[in-house]
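Example 470, ligand zinc ion.
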Amino acid sequence: MARTAIRARLLDFISDPTHSASAVRLVEDGLLLISGGRIVARGEYGPLSRALRADEKVADFSGCLLMPGFIDAHTHFPQLDVIASPASGVLDWLTLHTYPAEARFADPAVCQEAARFFLDELSRNGTTSACVLGTVHAQSVDALFAEAHARDVRLVAGKCLMDRNCPRELRDTAEQGVQQSADLADRWHGKRRLAYAITPRFAASSTTRQLQLAGELASARRDLYVQSHLAESEDEVRWVRELYPQARSYLDVYDSVGLVRELSAYAHCIWLDSADRLRLAQARAVAAVCPSSNLFLGSGAFDFRLAEQAGMTVALGTDVGGGQSFSMLATMRAAHEVALMRGGMLRATQLFYWATRGAADALGWEGQVGTLESGAEADLVVLDPAATPLLARRFAAAGSIEEQLFALMILGDDRVVRETFVAGQPSKIWCKPEVVAVASSPGDTARTRELTRRFMGRLRDAPGGGVLKP
Ligand SMILES: [Zn+2]
């Protein structure tokens, strides 16, 4: 079977840097071998390159960092057209921008086009997996899964459950919404790398009855994910308190119906009390922190210190389109700013961990993605520290990997993403104009072959005896 060989600085995490000083694993001149969509070997370039066959080409990304692809723990694919739209807060954002944009997804053609653009944009930003909210329309999730399946992307997604406090055209009913969720799960969950998430939009847009039915589905199907929003802004928390006067807290609204458990991911988690934090930690639910969105909408600042003290599981989300960027580097930068507001300080290695292995382990993908270990799926990103003159200059002056990663997340964006590999396939090529015709043709095996042919063609045509100089 054909192998892809990549030479670069190899960076990944053995464990959580919070708890271990030796969690960061860096090979300065490394070689990674991929075959059948998986990593089959990794190590120092010198010794490992001697195992290469004479006809095997090496994609030479020397000087670039090769690391596990980023994982976006919370984002919305139907909000592409309203990113960068002003609003005074999240509730305003929903009514002014989000709901009108999402109403267009009643049209399957709109869903398909957006799904393609969204997945292209993930790749362009080095993101190889995401937890994604569709609209209330089942066809929005069908379109996203179909496109992700054709590209072999590891993706979690779900249709929004929303049966009150939203425009009539975006309303399902308690029974119909949950039935559609179960049907979508039957169609897509476990199909190669796809997983379904039961997705109540947020407590205020579901009736108690709908949340109860969602909880019953979550109990019957422990293998399904759960995703929603939790305690994003103070106005929202007040509203939920009025709607659910019997609940101890916003979290308790979900918890009382069985929606807080492993494989559940709650976006934001800002306005919590200590009992909520302990409960999330004990349930091993994931706090999908979305600092870029929180800054943009003025929602508040997540308290990383209290989260750590409580033992909460943290991952990072872009929350596009409330979030300002698809870039997980931009998300890390915002997390740094938000942490400072709360009097805390995060290390860059911690943030890169949360965006890769931390998220993978939190989402139940330990050993499968988020690591460069042999046997893992080859979801990878190549980051070029010389992508801009200022970054190159600052990077050269950095003395440690911590300092280098910090410069990368503060100064970097999609320009530093040299290539993104999804299941071993170079996927940034999807976004290039010359393969648009290929990308929109049916049949994933033909497309995969075409991508490989083009990638190998780039290797062959490169000067230096087939060695690709990025
Ligand atoms: Zn969101």
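Summary: The two ends are 25 Å apart (CA to CA).
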